[in-house]
User: What shape does this take?
Amino acid sequence: MKITAAITGVGGYVPDYVLNNEELSHMVDTTDEWIVEHTGIKERRILKGEGQGVSVMGAKAVQQLLEKTNTSPDEIDLVITPTVTADMPFPATSCIICDKVGIKNAFAFDINAGCSGFLYGLNVAKQFIETGARKKVIVVANEKMSSVTDYTDRKTCPLFGDAAAAVLVEPNYDGFGIQDVILQSDGFGRQYLYQKAGGSVCPPSEETIRNKEHFIYQDGNSVYKAAVLNMSRVADEIIARNNLSADQINYFISHQANLRIIDSIRNRMKLEQEKVLINIHKYGNTSAVSVPLVMWDFEKQFKKGDNIIIATFGAGFTWGAMFYKWAY
Assistant: This one.
């Protein structure tokens, strides 16, 4: 009997603090109207407090997931954590989350694939589930994008927010879950979206801090064009090779980076507006968290057997698409 990897529950967490466009307009030279027109973002959540890293949010998302699915921490045998804003360079944030929620029987590691991290992590989980090597896998994406955002840079500071979301992945024997995946990357994009300092090439120093080299750098036009082109291409490819028509697609989940990017891809796919799930207006770009955060937001709307197309694009460049059949 064929085993497929299926999501059996979704947990999430967003910080209480809401940074809206009005407040942002007092920090940099921008307006609510400009931000909404160019990005679709109205507000974003920010994790406040001394010593609060992504694992704080990730642990809350995992705890909620365990409770919702009535799963004991002892049952989990693998934890995968996509993030670009880890608590620290090492140990892995996944290990810290495991300790915080009492997961003792799993091995755990992080994935850095930018905003495509969740899709990459879900595909790794798929391999372990389909081979029978693991039975209960958690993929928990968490990002504290505010920690690498320069709030004096009007081009990037309106874009990003903090959040975490986790899914439980288990074997399915009825054909639901992950049907097909395409993952790609091309290092040419590394010059357009990166954090310069903090790694081994450019370790932290007084100079790197003074020059603001620990914040996100983004060439917006180049990233925009590459995101639309590559997400559209892999979405079209996965639809074509699974013989899906627009009518057969129940929902489309795109990485929530920019509403104009999402609309461009929707138009190319010829999908009705109501099939495209969007929460960027509430949370901004939460990097690897954006796709599972949409799942968390719209979970009650999904029906067993719904055909969902997912597309992501992130730093690297990394991008991918998935054909997913909702399992519950």
In short: The first strand starts at residue 4 and ends at 13.
